[in-house]
Amino acid sequence: MATAADITAMRRAIALAARGLGSTSPNPVVGCVITDASGRTAGEGYHQRAGGPHAEIHALRAAGGRARGGTAYVTLEPCNHTGRTGPCARALIDAGISRVVYAVGDPDPRATGGAETLRAAGVEVGRGPLTAEAEAGNSAWLTAVRTGRPHVLWKYASTLDGRIAAQDRTSRWITSPEARADVHRLRAEADAVVVGSGTLRTDDPQLAVRGIEGATQPLRVVLDTHATVRPTARVLDPAAPTLIAVGEGADTGHLPGADVVRLPVVEGRVSVPALLAELYGRGVRSVLLEGGPTLAGAFVAAGAVDKVIGYLAPVLLGAGPAALAGAGITTIGEALRLDMTETTRIGPDLRVTAVPATAPKER
Question: Which of 44, 56, 77, 278 is catalytic?
Answer without folding.
Answer: 56
